[in-house]
Amino acid sequence: MSPRMAAVRAGWRRGRIELRQSFTNRPELFSHFLWPVLMLVALFFLRHRDFGSTGLLLGTFALPGILGMNAAMGMVSMSQQLTADREDGTLLRAKATPNGMLGYLVGKVVSVAGGLLADLAILLIPALLIVDNLALGSFGGWFTLLWVLALGMVATLPIGAVLGSVFTTARSQGLLQLPVLGLIAISGVFYPITALPDWLEWIGQVFPIYWMGLGMRSALLPDSTVVVEIGDSWRHLETVGVLGVWAVAGLLVAPVVLRRMARRESGSKVAERRERALRRVA
Amino acid sequence: MVLAVDGLRMRYGDAEVLHDVSFSAGHGEVVVLLGPNGAGKSTTIEILEGFRLRSAGTVEVLGVDPAAGDERWRSRLGIVLQSWRDHGNWRIRELLHHLGTYYAAYATNTIERPWDTDELLAAVGLSSHAEQKIKTLSGGQRRRLDVAIGIVGRPEVLFLDEPTAGFDPEARYEFHNLVRRLAAEHETTILLTTHDLDEASKLAHRILILNAGRIVAAGTTGELTALIAGEDEVRWSVDGQHFHTTTPDSTGLARDLFTQYGASVRDLEVRRASLEDTYLALVRGQEVAL
């Protein structure tokens, strides 16, 4: 087996080990359940609320959007993990190992993507009991769900890696949360994007969160509900277009930025950050 | 030569941190870079590891310029940095085994890679902790794990940046044995930084004293000690009166004392110049001829 192939396989195992770890230690287990539980509570209160004269229930509308949003949040966890791994020396360890960066990245994609899928299941399965009127059971619906998820992850995870390379400290990662929350607010997750002023509607449509939510709605809602969407259409073509552009951009930029970041890593950099972190605690 | 450094310079902006550093090391040789904090030890080692680009000079590690080292070259190096705190949720055996798999493809007819996980655990004295989570280890145990990871690929060159910081005396003793064994049995070339003189004199085949970015002295412990001749310290008393002097010829001084005072010389004490004296003299900026 070639060394690079061996590293890819090692990365796959690495991802599985880290995924298992994230479900066997308390703080991470807590974060796996916190968000889904909060969302389920919100869905519970929205489940009977009517939504204009469309006959659609707000909870029903929101569930797919939440799923899409959660999937897009893989971007944030990718970015945070990269920063954390840089601070504690994991990344430098990978750099000191032959083909270690390759194994590291494969492992990260496997663990983040696996964690996302697990989180989606944690939310979706109980939500099916709370929310009515979903269009489940059609093959086409599940197929759409899968391709939107897959394409969405390819669009968002590399961007997360870029953000993780650019924002170097845990503190700056915290600042990143604010614009992300703002983006969620204008992405039509809990309420149709058409309720927003035109210019905000346009901004929302630039980013992947809206399109992943739209794709999920097209997969899980009955076709009759399409009337609340822009242009009364699920716009699959546009979904593929926008997510595709993000994916290509991310896959082009991420290797460059990651390589630059890796090149700059050294023992004294890690020691420096460690000292800074200790000063913050003291 | 396994390590060959000639005229190495490093500059950050206007600040020059390494001036014209040159040294070399062969197979199985233990070279210790000794010097105070900020002398340039870590910078030197990072350049050799390929983690930092130098400003000038030639550097070869296993015949390759570290700035152009590929993954095969990297598989022949072992690196132990000053501070790791990565992989806290992993178990010891799990991580050692995992990192070992990256080296398997680089095994040769003469070097089996990676090191067997259980053998390696035994070699660094962590067998009884194999299933423990890394974040629960004590500082000394963690350091031994770092060393284990550094040698999991059976490196031909091992870089150790202040490996024993925070060790208790027993752990230090064990670690020194491990380093000697690696050099003697596995022909591993070891470059180690420390500011602990005692450690340097115990381990090194050769010591390089680095101060303010220059190698101010190089040699074996004995050679370096001999550099400062005439610094033996002699104390004695005659008729209850105490005396104290330093002399290049303590034996001659003692002979004269006995000739002159005979049996009334008491409390005679001779302390030979130590590596510590040499070291302190050097880092205080005294010029010592090589």
Automatic annotation (TrEMBL), chain B:
Compartment(s) where it occurs, according to its Swiss-Prot or TrEMBL record: Cell membrane
Membrane topology summary: Peripheral membrane protein
Gene3D superfamilies listed in its UniProt record: P-loop containing nucleotide triphosphate hydrolases
Every ABC transporter domain range: 3-237
InterPro entries listed in its UniProt record: AAA+_ATPase, ABC_transporter-like_ATP-bd, ABC_transporter-like_CS, ABC_transporter_ATP-binding, P-loop_NTPase
GO molecular-function term, one example from the UniProt record: ATP hydrolysis activity
Keyword Transport: yes
CC terms in the record's Gene Ontology section: plasma membrane
Principal location: membrane
Protein's UniProt keywords contain ATP-binding: yes
GO biological process: response to antibiotic
A Pfam family per the record: ABC_tran
Protein keywords: Antibiotic resistance, ATP-binding, Nucleotide-binding, Transport
Family matches, as SUPFAM superfamilies: P-loop containing nucleoside triphosphate hydrolases
Name the UniProt record assigns to this protein: ABC transporter ATP-binding protein
